[in-house]
Design brief:
- With 225 residues, the chain is of the alpha/beta class.
- It has a domain of 140 residues: TIM Barrel, CATH 3.20.20.
- Helices cover 40% and strands 18% of the residues.
- It is built from nine helices and eight strands.
- It has an eight-stranded parallel β-sheet.
- It is globular.
- The two termini are 25 Å apart.
């Protein structure tokens, strides 16, 4: 069975070329997928993987530790799990409150590189989703940038799945404006993580530098027994 990875990478290149933008980083969203599936993509050259659930991810990180993979936490983080996340992940994309900033900074080992952090923004103000309000970005960014064990890298969002393309574009555009304003103050904040299997081309057109793709790479999610 042919791997979907080459086709996805080609699609990202084509979407970026059509929009006149740089090709984004592909984050393979591997939640609920077995370690064997991740190893298969790693053998093809994929290095960055995103996980939603801390305990599930830790088992995979341990099983695949010899492959030199880059692990991103993209799901909601409870502060009582900040210590293990700070020790085992390279990126956390779901920071949305000061309590997490403090906890991650305190627990990140000083002998590891600074933990890359994205601020999650609830750009469509959905009650069912986590993320800070756009007006809270500046204060969170300042708190992250002040911590030597953290590295502020940008923003992440999961916009509402609007059926209307104009509404999706509006949400992506608001995120792009927030990202541009943030990077003007913090040049190292070079990452805008948005776009998934169903809308990554639109996200790229609106400035995404990282897209999170799961279903198109792995197929339907595998639910643990």
């Amino acid at each position: 069975m042919q791997s979907p990875l080459p086709g996805i990478l080609s699609n990202l290149q084509n979407a970026a070329q059509a929009a006149g933008r740089p090709v984004p980083t592909l984050l393979a969203v591997s939640k609920t997928q077995p370690a064997s599936a991740i190893a298969g993509l790693a053998a093809e050259g994929q290095r960055a993987f995103g996980e939603n659930y801390v305990q599930e991810a830790l088992a995979k990180i341990e099983a695949l530790q010899g492959l030199g993979l880059e692990w991103h936490l993209i799901g909601h983080l409870q502060s009582n799990k900040a210590e293990v996340v700070a020790r085992h992940f390279q990126w956390v994309q779901s920071v949305d409150r000061n309590k997490l900033v403090t906890a991650l900074a305190r627990h990140r080992p000083v002998d590891l590189p600074p933990l890359n952090v994205l601020i999650q923004v609830n750009i469509d103000d959905e009650s069912s989703k986590h993320g800070c309000q756009p007006a809270q970005v500046d204060a969170l960014a300042a708190a992250i940038a002040a911590e030597p064990t953290l590295q502020l890298r940008g923003l992440m969002a999961i916009p509402a799945p609007w059926p209307d393309p104009a509404q999706r574009h509006a949400a992506f555009s608001r995120m792009q404006a927030l990202q541009q304003a943030l990077q003007s103050r913090y040049p190292q904040a070079d990452t805008l993580s948005m776009g998934m299997s169903s809308d990554y081309a639109e996200a790229i057109a609106d400035g995404a530098t990282m897209v999170r793709i799961g279903t198109a790479l792995f197929g339907a999610r595998v639910r643990p027994a």
